[in-house]
Design brief:
homodimer; 266 residues; alpha/beta; 60s Ribosomal Protein L30, Chain: A; Alpha/beta knot; 7-stranded parallel sheet; 5-stranded mixed sheet; 21% strand
């Protein structure tokens, strides 16, 4: 179906705007992804938006035509509107000329098939959606199977996380669990839990990584709780040659994940 | 000097607020750093704020007492104000209870003593202040000497960059230059320019890194201009096992810088 929206007070506009807030995303089970590049990544990964919203002033683009046709063919809805209304929906003064509404994915631990990939990333109480999206992007790059979000993490379906993931939100499995759910699940099968740590740790280079390797990263300001570190099969240290004793969480995860990748592919 | 400010329209409040904008920072040659942790990092690195602004409702803290005493001893000013006015200055609804005003540093290439460190990071048109701050933090961690910002980069003295640097803005040398200034400067002495690239590149692991090594990272969406890549002494590739062909800029820089560190320390 195809229609045009010209009024700010249209209920669809209100609904789309509401998806910028976590509670409304949660209630609706839907999220927004902005921009043709992200929407094309989604399509190529097998995901079409339920609803495609385009500015009437958009420039023509073959990929957009393809997307539009496929959304209509799959029974989705295509909405044309003004750039101003699109700005109101995305909350950005210079919105990308197209936005899609997607159904949120299943994020239970059931989606994680640990034997499907040699590396999995695990984030504990990661609060910054940009860091979360960046970790998803890194997961894709190292050929990980997905990202497991432990305890109170940022929402992977927030606009900022989706944007920072550069499409990886559509290619990576994402699970959400408490530590008390995660640990028994992990121990119910093969899996090495590895964390960067200052306690009882070995150098991260040349450590005995094993597949499937679960790379655990802690909260941005607190790091990992001591009890969580104690449960790890391997604790590794990265060189810290300066004044600080830690890296940005998504950076630490990436440096470690690339080391694991190199070790497992040797 | 010590004084109290109670009115929103106080000229000092207006001045401090103005420092949230780049043009005003540039005109004033000053910037803000928020929070006791950051201010303590600054002090331990030899930098005291010209002006220290504290909420009257702050909790007592030994480090804050030390800071306050040193600011007063050095001829700086200490201002007490309400939490609301502090919020107005920082633009955050939940401001950290203390903010300092610092003089911007010299950011000419003259500040870079290439022989003082084995690694330097170089960012080209890096637009995201969070990425910039994260790169400064990584510089500190790998024992780099500093960050050289090429062409049109984000402002290293923005609140977001300062925050993301976790104090490294005070420990790392920062230079700003155009490519046409940087390249002749680089070639006027020893220095290996290395970039992650897809063109004519060798694997990043085991590549022949040499000190002083300048690790070059490109713009978030465009990457490096082809001509800049061509000038590099070494082009390396990182594994990309997924759909995407690039990493977050600060992540790519960190993975590469840690590889260089390991190679140079072997």
């Amino acid at each position: 179906m195809r229609r045009e929206i010209t009024g700010y007070s249209n209920p669809t506009v209100k609904y789309l705007r509401s998806l910028r807030e976590k509670k409304h995303r949660k209630a609706a089970g839907e999220f927004l992804a902005e921009g043709l590049r992200l929407l094309t990544d989604a399509r190529e990964s097998g995901y079409l938006p339920e609803l495609l919203v385009m500015a009437k002033t958009r420039e023509a683009h073959t990929l957009l035509d393809v997307l539009e046709a496929e959304v209509l063919r799959s029974g989705g809805e295509v909405i044309e509107t003004t750039p101003d209304i699109l700005s109101k929906i995305t909350g950005k003064s210079n919105p990308q000329a197209v936005t899609g509404v997607f159904k949120e994915f299943d994020t239970s631990l059931d989606v994680i098939d640990r034997d499907a990939a040699p590396i999995w990333m695990v984030a504990e109480s990661l609060r910054d959606p940009g860091n979360l999206g960046t970790m998803l992007r890194t997961c894709d790059a190292v050929g990980a199977g997905g990202l497991i979000l432990i305890d109170d993490c940022a929402d992977p379906f927030s606009a900022e996380a989706v944007r920072a993931s550069m499409g990886a939100v559509f290619t990576q499995n994402i699970a959400r669990a408490s530590w008390d759910e995660f640990l028994p699940w992990l121990r119910s099968g093969a899996g090495q839990l590895v964390a960067a740590s200052l306690r009882d740790a070995v150098p991260y280079r040349g450590a005995a990584y094993a597949s499937p390797c679960f790379v655990l990263v802690g909260n941005e300001s607190q790091g990992l709780p001591e009890g969580y570190e104690a449960e790890c099969d391997l604790r590794v240290t990265m060189p810290m040659r300066g004044r600080a004793d830690s890296l940005n969480a998504s950076v630490a995860g990436a440096v470690l994940a690339y080391e694991v990748l190199a070790a497992l592919e040797k």
